[in-house]
Amino acid sequence: MVKNAVEIHDLHVVRGRRTVLEHLDITVGAGVTGLLGPSGCGKSTLMRCLVGVQQVAGGAVSVFGDPAGSSRLRDRVGYVTQASSVYDDLTVDENLRFFARVLGVDPAHVDRAVDAVDLDDHRDQVVGRLSGGQRSRASLAVALLGEPDLLVLDEPTVGLDPVLRADLWRLFHDLADRGTAVFVSSHVMDEAERCDRLLLMREGRIIADGTPTEIKEKAGAGNIEDAFLAIVRGAAA
Fold first, then answer.
1. How far apart are the C-alpha atoms of 125 and 130, rounded to whole Å?
2. H or E stretch covering 36
């Protein structure tokens, strides 16, 4: 039986002459796991490794016991990129029904996905006319079509107002409570407190791993941003 949703061993990614990810060893289990760090630190690259679309220089990434990107994982992993993954000229309902056909998912899942992201009142609206938060929820609905066991979210709340961000985080925890392992990245440090477990990343390395409370206590800091700075300064010293 596979204990963790994701097992990463000695993962190494190089782009040109630059090391993007440096020999990472990570596991991702149940609940909401947050990946926080400044823009350009390697978060999106790590996300792509989890879904099997990133070329790696070495190491291994397995998801539920299979290599990342395996065909057997197609219905078990949902992925939301920073860019919108829905068509602007189609309605929410048309988008979801199209992707349901592409994924070979029962059309009955469309209604459940729309309901999960609270877009039922907007399902007949063209996506291009939706607000930024509604578009983000439409993209999330597509990722939820197959009722995935692992949901990989690359900065899903970027550019959203605080109310919409809070709504999405509640949804992430609702999904985790139903058994989905949620792996979500952000560069907004105040979102750290919303995670069950937190990975802090800098320059392609994981510099802290634990609950938000554990990380703050270990760094002797009152918030995650101060903890991040203390850890970086401590490493430099």
1. 7
2. strand 32-36
Tell me how far the alpha carbon of residue 59 is from its chain's centroid.
21
In angstroms, the Cα distances linking 138 to 34, 132, 190, 211 are 21, 10, 24, 30
> 3-class SS at 175?
helix
| Amino acid found at 20 | V
CA-closest candidate to residue 149, choices 174, 178, 169: 178
Cα–Cα distance for residue pair 51/112, rounded to 1 Å: 23
Which residues fall within 8 angstroms of residue 121, CB to CB, at 6 or more apart? none
User: Each residue of 100-133: pLDDT tens digit?
Assistant: 888 888 888 898 889 888 888 999 999 999 887 7
Distances (CA, A) of 177 to 30, 124, 181, 196: 9, 29, 9, 11
* Residue bearing tokens 């029904």: 97
The first and second tokens of residue 76, run together, are: 């078990």
pTM of this prediction? 0.87
For the chain, what is the largest distance between any 2 Cα atoms, rounded to a whole number of angstroms? 57
